[in-house]
Write a structure and sequence with these properties.
single chain; 4 helices; OB fold (Dihydrolipoamide Acetyltransferase, E2P); alpha+beta; six-stranded antiparallel beta sheet; three-stranded antiparallel beta sheet; 35% strand
Length: 126
């Protein structure tokens, strides 16, 4: 299982890549593997400001539907429109083309509460 060192992770299996005051968010390779084939992504929170750990959308797989949680508080600037037509991109490239949202962070200090690649690896037993 790939766990890029340049990302931070949540216990709910989201990853975060920071670019200035914007956080790019997606789900981990572990999460997409547990979900199975992803068939639909619903994100209707663009333009909204959400608190850390609030639900920003859902991901639907053949087996289940799972909530997506904000790793940091902030305003959702953009969603990955390409996932509307090709949700399986998350299965193929969870850390690249399968990103989900971009968030303008309210409090970058919240990043200190996220997990490193090593800590996340220990969490999932990888």
């Amino acid at each position: 299982m790939k766990l890029p060192e340049n990302l931070q992770y949540t216990k709910e299996h989201e990853w975060v890549k920071v670019d200035g005051d914007v956080a790019v968010v997606g789900i981990t390779e572990y999460a997409q593997g547990e979900l199975g084939d992803i068939v639909f992504v619903e994100i209707e929170t663009v333009g909204e400001s959400l608190d850390k750990e609030e639900t920003f959308g859902t991901v639907e797989a053949v087996k289940t539907v799972s909530d997506l949680f904000m790793p940091v508080s902030g305003e959702i600037l953009e969603k990955n429109e390409a996932l509307d037509d090709a949700p399986e991109t998350i299965n193929k490239d969870p850390y690249g083309a399968g990103w989900m949202i971009k968030v303008k962070m309210n409090n970058p200090a919240e990043l200190d509460e996220l997990l490193s690649a090593a800590e996340y690896s220990d969490l999932v037993g990888a």
